[in-house]
Amino acid sequence: MASQITFIGAGNMASAIFGGMIESGYPREAITATSPSDEFLAPLRSRYGIHTQTDNRTAVVNADVVVLAVKPQIMQSVCAELCETIQARKPLIVSVAAGLPAETLERWLGGDLAVIRCMPNTPALVGAGAAGLFANPRVTTDQRELATQLMQAVGLAEWVDDETQLEAVTAIAGSAPAYFFLIFEALEAAGTRLGLPADSARRLALQTAYGAACMAQHSDQSPDQLKRNVMSPGGTTERAIQVLEDAGLRQTFLDATDACAKRAREMADELGKR
Ligand SMILES: NC(=O)C1=CN([C@@H]2O[C@H](COP(=O)(O)OP(=O)(O)OC[C@H]3O[C@@H](n4cnc5c(N)ncnc54)[C@H](OP(=O)(O)O)[C@@H]3O)[C@@H](O)[C@H]2O)C=CC1
Ligand SMILES: O=C(O)[C@@H]1CCC=N1
Fold it and tell me: Where does the Pyrroline-5-carboxylate reductase dimerisation domain lie (predicted)?
């Protein structure tokens, strides 16, 4: 029988994960999601056919896995609310909150719990997510396997041995879809400025991004070689790449990902002190 999974918080990240799980065949009857507002939950019920609850405690009573998917800033109060019920059953805890250390979360929930920290991303919704996972020492082999299966149902799942590596996962996967969406916006605007209708520019930019990612995934050649394959000497691509290199695009990505990882560390410091 499928494990009963309760999502505390049913926002962007939670709905991307349970939406992707259902899409990949996970039984919807085994999924419950919570929110303080039933108005918010109603469309999720009709769209996904999952159970919903406005009361977090009731929602975890029979859960085998509890996925904590509220904002990091309110996690402590949510844990205080759940602590007693969680301690009575001791389900596997999976947190997707950025920055929040597993040890802090376990303490907030009363201790002695199997906790997996996961840093997923929203393309999970279309089965193309990329997630990093870290297990505390109480997580059993079976629980690790279950978490792998759940996250593999919605994309790539990579385990890390050192919890601080989740900062890097946040920088290049958790937050990174937003970098690509920014590039899509910029390419669409560029296409429009150069004379294409906006909808056509968007389709071309998105298909090109999709094609480049598929090609890089299936090719034996490195991204550098694939890039060179597009650049005819003295041609158009060489000019464009030169502009991007001269503008310091590589360094900009290093700076952006450093800022992202630094913010994850700051959040860990702030939350870990509570
Ligand atoms: N978005 C992303 O790409 C990623 C997010 N994450 C992590 O996922 C977590 C959720 O982020 P995201 O989905 O973006 O945020 P959202 O705001 O979309 O979702 C959080 C949801 O939690 C609800 N909520 C608030 N209080 C409670 C409560 N007491 N009990 C149950 N639900 C509650 C909110 O409702 P209301 O709006 O009514 O307050 C909201 O619907 C964060 O910890 C974030 O760090 C991790 C990786 C990627
Ligand atoms: O921006 C954030 O804090 C969350 C975590 C990773 C993606 N979104």
Answer: 163-267
